[in-house]
Design brief:
single chain, 47% strand, mainly beta, 5-stranded mixed β-sheet
Amino acid sequence: MQRLGLGLAAWAAGAAVAWADPTADIRGEMPDELRAQLVRAVGESEGPPSNRFEARRRARSAAENATALLRSEGYYQATVQDDVEGEETPVAVVVVVLGPRFLLATPTVTWTDEVPSPEIDQAARGELDLTAGEPGRAIDVIGAEGRLVAALSRRGHADARATPRRVVVDHATQTVEPEYRIDAGPLVRLNGVRLETRGRTNPDWVDYLRPWEEGDVYDAEQVAELERRLLETGVYDGVGVALAPAEQVTANGHRPVIVTLTDRPRRILEVGATISTGEGAGIDAIWTHHNRFGRADTLRYQARIANIDSRIGADLSLPHWRRPGRTLTLSGAVVNEDTDAYVRTALTASADLRQRIGRTSYFTYGVGLDAGQYQENRFDPLTQLPVSFDRDLVILTARGSAYTDASNDPLDPTRGWRLFVSAQPTAVAGEDTVLFVRAEAQVSAYLPIQDDARTVLAGRVRLGSILGGDELTVPSDRLFYSGGGGSVRGYSYQGVGPRLPDNTPRGGISLFETSIEARHKLRGALGAAVFVDAGAVGFEEYPDFGDLRFGAGVGVRYDLPFGPIRADIAFPLDKRDGDADFQIYVSIGQAF
């Protein structure tokens, strides 16, 4: 019987990268998976040995690495012999005779200092996940120790640590018996938050965000949740959240959580430009104030001059408003929309509350008020003739939506899915009176075709319906339109769907859109995409699938640290009078 200390060095040799020419040939009967591990363990060489002396040196080095790997896999009685074959072209050889594989005996846990409660002791041992009779692999023994310490930490023993383990390898019984020696440390109870930073943030507001009460048992997930709550505000360049050292306990034996915040610049000026053949050009300027009121707030002033949508306005975002995870957004703007279907000049104001659920999901509810003048080109279903009219309207909208993101990246997803649904009960007053509900849903999914996600198949479906209104009475900006870079590429903005005799888009009270896109990484940061989009606008409450319009095209993607830049060229497959031969779109982020 011998006592051995197992460590990472015993098995890490198996993680070496395998090249075309291994340092030595592996000989002997063994499973294919183990042979592949040994090939990786012995390492690679740049070329054949120049002489027998060099071949012998390589064989001995390879034998040492092979022995370490075999022991880590439980083969403690394996025979490993180095050899050299050939005179003029010598070859390093390692001959392996495995012998029996040692099996795990029942592991034991010894508490070296602090001892947890019987309940925590039992729960922690239950997470060892080692079963007597399984192969005595070092990686399993080491992993169990990590799980044991993590289990203690999750149950309030934040200072739990492992002292050197002892592993008994018994050659008589051919077993491996690990003994874990653990210092559980004291059960930690939390105090409040101590803000150690310079900046404008109010310490009382940070303390309000903590998800625990004073005296609660330490929970690493709750400490991580505080960090998430601070990060999601978007006003800090750096957020640090950590349990105070053991010597900093309060008089009642509790430990505070230390928070450090690095503020973003208080004022930021951003200028941007967009251009597309279908939607024209636009220039945006945004003046942002961060943390003006000391509670991670964001105040933005925005001005936009564009062919279609120009506006000037401001919005105030108050994260964690009256409860953690809920954001209040207040906004107001003067808007001028000049589209082929209508011209709208209006004052807008809104208040919305967004409540986060989990890490990537949320629901939003709020109210919006618009007051302005509409110049509309419409179709009268009674006379079957185009009609133009101006009207002053006041529109009150209650709105609710929900969003969940199960993808792996917000700007360039390669796997997972997303779902968005919304409903907007709306009351219109002024020169017309109408009540209706505008409902919409969109789902998108991403499937990697190769293991490294070099090729990704992406798809989306969008449905919309207006209940309780008709084409003539619903305000033009609340109707559904399709066409453009975010919907059916190849057509101009609002270019899909029925039109008036002068090619003015009619808009509709139902919508169907779908897209499928194949994205492929070419080399470095460069990628390519091919896609097909389809869409239809209808005049009934359910979508009209009989009037689908299709567009197809290709694009290039260039990855930057913040996400891909997208450039697409698309062609209408159902070209009508007034449609351009192609459309070009340039933007940041994937199309969906």
